[in-house]
């Protein structure tokens, strides 16, 4: 069985971290009998430059045909002034929408070696292991109308629409409950049911799915603003947090910082499993974004992207042992004192993107037996 992996490096540090992660893929091919083919396709700003659109049909088609997509990052100041529909981010959003990647898994795990790298006190973050399950194809990101109009008095009026249906909430709730069963068996559902009708529906539907299908899992409801506060007060009270597209975007950046650096956090975006073929659309992506300020300098932390590939091994290819091996290799490198600039601490050894990846490959060699 040869897997097809589509690489979409994109912009900023995307190409650098994807290139280095490609070396990790190569290691698994050589050492773990992992047969795959890769192909690269443009997305985001680079696609706009070369093809005139940030969301080329050819890339979307290739992504649909692939077993998994490994995505770098999109965006940068160069494209800030483009009209909305030509912005690099459209490429990512269209991939999510067209592949129906409704479930975004964002684990925030604090490696022991990094507990002092967080801006929070080490005792608050040591041993942290939470999973944010973010709804990814609905809500205010995609709701219609989404438009800017000019009013009779000449001023402008912009509208985004927050919208959720029962079935959209049910399916993301199920993903969260199922994953909770494999972990700490707790789900916190975050919304704003005190001010938003979508929040009221969200709470009702999550409560119903829980009662009917997952009564063994512990469920709590939390207002999203309070959740943001609780995440910095006592993040370890959480196991799985399920939330909508926009709150998930915000809460996951916050959770990332708990772990020391946003350069550490991987993510998986999954579609529904086809009952007949078992095929499931999937995209794996570091959550850090394009970081234009350090792009092209070989400084980026490749770990979020490498750990995204570990998620790919686990969720798309069922290679749980390989995924664990890769996560242990990252852990080993960190405990040996190697750091990229974003997680640098006194007394540690500072490395660039490629040298950090060298260390991960060495750790894989050391651990593979
Ligand atoms: C993320 C990013 C994206 C989002 C951007 C790049 C469109 O912030 O994946 O969290 O807002 O979803
Ligand atoms: Mg974000």
Overall description:
This protein is an alpha/beta fold and 369 residues long. The chain is 41% helix and 21% strand. The protein folds into two domains: 1-107 and 262-369, 3-Layer(aba) Sandwich (Isopropylmalate Dehydrogenase), CATH 3.40.718; 129-258, Isopropylmalate Dehydrogenase. The chain is built from twelve helices and 14 strands. A ten-stranded mixed β-sheet has the order 2-1-3-12-11-4-5-10-8-9, with helices on both faces. The protein is globular, with a radius of gyration of 20 Å. It starts with a strand and ends with a helix. The model has no long low-confidence stretch (mean pLDDT 96). Residues 75, 89, 92-93, 249, 287, 289 line the site of 3-isopropylmalic acid (IPM).
Radius of gyration, in angstroms, nearest whole number = 20 Å
Strand content: 15-25%
CATH class category of the largest domain: Alpha Beta
Number of helices: 12
CATH superfamily of the largest domain: Isopropylmalate Dehydrogenase
Rounded mean pLDDT score: 96
Compressed to H and E, one letter per element, the order equals: EHEHHEHEHEEEHEHEHEHEEHHEEH
Number of strand segments:
14
Global structural class: alpha/beta
Across the major sheet, the strand order is 2-1-3-12-11-4-5-10-8-9
End-to-end span in angstroms?
24 Å
Overall tally of domains = 2
**Bound ions, cofactors and other small molecules, one mention each:** 3-isopropylmalic acid, magnesium ion
Q: Identify the CATH architecture of the largest domain.
A: 3-Layer(aba) Sandwich
Characterize the main sheet: 10 strands, mixed
Helical content stands at 40-55%
CATH topology of the largest domain: Isopropylmalate Dehydrogenase
The assembly state of the depicted protein chains is single chain
The low-confidence runs, each spanning 5 or more residues with pLDDT under 50, are none
